[in-house]
């Protein structure tokens, strides 16, 4: 079926009162970025819904990308027909034949914004119902919970017909809840945390620590590919790579083994805070789950959080690992996350890290390293990249990836 447009219905935006227009404007911008690969589209945001004119673009490809944009309740591919009832009948039958199987139940639902049109909503429902009863006697009219709804929209420029409603991603348009940074490792949890942040309307920038030569270019590419997996939900995401080799080497040389991980993560959190403040972010998100590893006990969190007053949000904090894995599979980050490229969180991990580090001891051991100098040099070496959903960084090594998986 050749569709003319996709009609988008908003999600939670209906509850936003006076802020509704700013939310719609943000959603419009996010949709435009998410659909940047389709140059012929025309996007027309209205107060109650958004209309995306396809102008010959592939409707299936557009809908696939649209299904990942937060702030959309659902959408329908539609056919535009001139306001001539003979043509409306013809196109409606063609659409029903293409999408509604024999024996299905259906009803007609008309919405009329052009009140100058000759038929009102009830008259249009009756007209279309009578026509389809004759043209498709194999179908059953059912007012409550039918298998299909023929939606008829009478607008000023044309009449739009649709029979399919696709569920959107829900949530809020990314950017309407402020900006934060996400501490992105190469593991399973942090991309899931990023997904949940985006779903609640938070614009995120990825902060990834890398430690060459201890971590490989493949580990860095993997983190960028994980970012690209989340990019469709917003269009593009800034990726901030932070050199961490010198810091890790100094911590390993001067801090007792049991406190290596605690002091290392305090340095990461300091750097994430400095980056967030420099880039206008209001909070730090991470993928910590309570009790999952030594650095994620409540005692460890107290010792690590000691270095910042910036809010730290942990979307997966109370989830079981299997629950996190299920979400990672759903958002297609799991296979990338389990690829065995070590990140800087694991390369210097001690065999017996403290699960209940003492805060006073942690502060004392940290005096043995040059905190200010290490931070300044790391911040001077950061590199910022904008990553889109179409970007791929490990794809050139497909044989290796297939072998690893």
Molecular structure report:
There is one protein chain. With 405 residues, the chain is α/β, with parallel strands linked by helices. The model has no long low-confidence stretch (mean pLDDT 91). It has helices at 20-34, 59-66, 85-99, 121-135, 189-199, 217-230, 245-254, 260-278, 298-305, 321-330, 334-337, 344-347, 359-366, 371-380, 398-404; strands at 5-10, 42-45, 49-53, 72-81, 105-112, 140-141, 148-154, 159-162, 166-170, 179-183, 203-210, 236-243, 283-285, 312-313, 383-388. It has 2 domains: 5-167, VC0802-like (2-Layer Sandwich), CATH 3.30.2130.30; 179-403, 3-Layer(aba) Sandwich (Rossmann fold). Strands 1, 2, 3, 4, 5, 6, 7, 8 and 9 form a 9-stranded mixed β-sheet that branches. It has a 6-stranded mixed β-sheet with strand order 14-13-10-11-12-15, sandwiched between helices. Helix 7 (245-254) runs antiparallel to helix 8, helix 8 crosses helix 9 (298-305) and helix 8 (260-278) crosses helix 14 (371-380). The protein contains 15 helices and 15 strands. Its main location: cytoplasm. ATP binds at residues 183-184, 208-209, 265, 287, 296. Belongs to the ThiI family.
Topology:
Elements: E1 5-10, H1 20-34, E2 42-45, E3 49-53, H2 59-66, E4 72-81, H3 85-99, E5 105-112, H4 121-135, E6 140-141, E7 148-154, E8 159-162, E9 166-170, E10 179-183, H5 189-199, E11 203-210, H6 217-230, E12 236-243, H7 245-254, H8 260-278, E13 283-285, H9 298-305, E14 312-313, H10 321-330, H11 334-337, H12 344-347, H13 359-366, H14 371-380, E15 383-388, H15 398-404
Parallel strand pairs: 5-6, 5-7, 10-11, 10-13, 11-12, 13-14
Antiparallel strand pairs: 1-3, 1-4, 2-3, 4-8, 4-9, 7-8, 12-15
């Amino acid at each position: 079926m050749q569709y003319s447009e996709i009609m988008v219905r908003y999600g939670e935006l209906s509850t936003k009162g006076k802020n509704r227009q700013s939310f719609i404007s943000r959603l419009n911008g996010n949709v435009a970025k998410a659909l940047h690969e389709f140059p012929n589209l025309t996007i027309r945001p209205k107060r109650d819904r958004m209309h995306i004119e396809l102008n010959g673009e592939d409707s299936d490809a557009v809908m696939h990308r649209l299904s990942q944009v937060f702030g959309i309740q659902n959408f329908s591919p539609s056919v535009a027909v001139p306001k001539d009832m003979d043509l409306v009948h013809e196109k409606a039958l063609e659409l029903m034949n293409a999408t509604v199987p024999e024996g299905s139940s259906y009803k007609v639902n008309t919405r009329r914004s052009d009140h100058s049109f000759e038929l009102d909503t009830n008259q249009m429902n009756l007209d279309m119902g009578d026509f389809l009863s004759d043209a498709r006697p194999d179908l059953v009219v059912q007012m409550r919970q039918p298998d299909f709804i023929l939606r008829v929209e009478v607008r000023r420029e044309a009449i739009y017909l649709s029979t399919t409603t696709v569920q959107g991603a829900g949530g809020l348009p990314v950017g309407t809840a402020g900006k934060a940074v996400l501490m992105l490792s190469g593991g399973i949890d942090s991309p899931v945390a990023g997904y949940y942040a985006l779903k609640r309307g938070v614009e995120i920038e990825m902060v990834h620590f890398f430690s060459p030569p201890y971590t490989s270019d493949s580990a860095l590419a993997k983190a960028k590919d994980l970012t690209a997996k989340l990019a469709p939900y917003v269009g593009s995401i800034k990726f901030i790579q932070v050199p961490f080799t010198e810091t890790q080497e100094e911590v390993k040389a001067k801090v007792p083994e049991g406190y290596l991980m605690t002091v290392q993560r305090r340095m990461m959190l300091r750097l994430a805070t400095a980056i967030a403040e420099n880039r206008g972010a209001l909070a730090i998100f991470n993928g910590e789950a309570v009790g999952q590893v030594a650095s994620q006990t409540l005692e460890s969190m107290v010792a690590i959080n000691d270095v910042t007053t910036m809010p730290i949000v942990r979307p997966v904090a109370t989830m079981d690992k299997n629950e996190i894995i299920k979400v990672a599979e759903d958002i297609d980050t799991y296979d990338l996350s389990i690829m065995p490229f070590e990140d800087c969180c694991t390369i210097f991990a001690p065999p017996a890290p403290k699960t209940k580090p003492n805060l006073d001891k942690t502060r004392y051991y940290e005096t043995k390293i040059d905190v200010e100098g290490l931070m300044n040099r790391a911040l001077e070496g950061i590199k910022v990249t904008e990553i889109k959903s179409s970007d791929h960084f490990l794809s050139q090594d497909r044989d290796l990836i297939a072998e690893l998986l």
